[in-house]
Amino acid sequence: MCGIVGLHLREPALEPRLGELLTAMLGQVVERGPDSAGVAVYGDPRLSPPGRTVVSVLGISPAEVAEALPGTPAHDADATTVVHATPAEVAAALPGARIIGSGEGFAVLKGTGNPVELADSFGLASVTGWQGVGHTRMATESAVTPEGAHPFSVGPGQCLVHNGSFANHATIRRELRAQGVEFDSENDSEVGARFIAHHLEQGADLEKALRLLCERFDGFYTLLVSTGDAFAVVRDAIACKPALVAETDAWVAMASEYRALDVLPGIEDARIFEPEPEEVYVWRR
């Protein structure tokens, strides 16, 4: 089943409330995915200082970061540690680290267990910024592990959250591997994330990459994809997986259920709609 929430702020005055609002939204979709959860947040100066690349990793504690990279700040967030360094620096100094996201002004936090408890362990309610996406997972395609939790972030500042399943992910994984794309898991959602990242690297914009995904992937899916300047939603041709978008002058939000939107300020004045099948919706900063 799985639950998706996302919030793209247009009004800077709301940025101090990003984490508070995202926490409230995530709490409304717990029943859709009680196994694990994750978020990606954009613009929090504590997690990701302006102009500084950070790396989100699993399997490494802040104490290990301090020993391997003296003087390097590291933020503890449950199973995730956010390291204020580059991916190359982390890979060289901490070969056991499993990188789950990297970029400027961007951090990924994820783990297993109850999503509300995870949000608390992440310190999500105190996060600030201009954009955030979240996911609660009910595992169907792979084991319940922090690595299998969403978001999947495989390009700088880019992440994907997914409700549904890709029927032909094994075929597309083989095709991408033949083109030199490497994978970290057998999760079908990672294939979608890698496909999008690959086409972005080849020069496609986000809308084009998602249109290509619709042409190539079989299955049932609702996707929310975010980058350092955009927020996008797309559904499969049948659109059987739930999705609602709400839009005001102050924000754009997407969720699997209306109750996750109902916690937002000004929802009573929002334009609310269900995304059309295979239509790509993109909002930019």
The averaged pLDDT comes out at 95
Strand order of the largest sheet: 7-2-8-1-14-13-15
In DSSP terms, counting alpha (H) and pi (I) runs of 4 or more, how many helices?
Answer: 8
The portion of residues assigned to helices is: 10-25%
According to DSSP, the number of beta strands is: 16
Computed Rg: 17 Å
Order of helices and strands: EHEEHEEHEEHEEEHHHEEEEHEE
Classification by helices and strands = alpha+beta
> What about the largest sheet?
7 strands, antiparallel
Task: Assign an overall shape.
Answer: globular
Provide the descriptors you would attach to this structure in a database record.
globular; 32% strand; 285 residues; seven-stranded antiparallel β-sheet; five-stranded antiparallel β-sheet; alpha+beta
Notes on the protein architecture:
Helix content is 25%, strand content 32%. The longest helix has 14 residues, at 188-201. The strands form three sheets. The chain has a seven-stranded antiparallel beta sheet. With 285 residues, the protein is of the alpha+beta class. The protein is built from eight helices and 16 strands. The chain has helices spanning 18-27, 62-68, 87-93, 115-122, 169-178, 188-201, 206-216, 258-261; strands at residues 3-9, 36-42, 53-58, 74-77, 80-83, 98-104, 106-112, 131-137, 152-155, 158-166, 219-226, 230-235, 244-247, 251-255, 271-273, 281-284. The mean pLDDT is 95. It starts with a strand and ends with a strand.
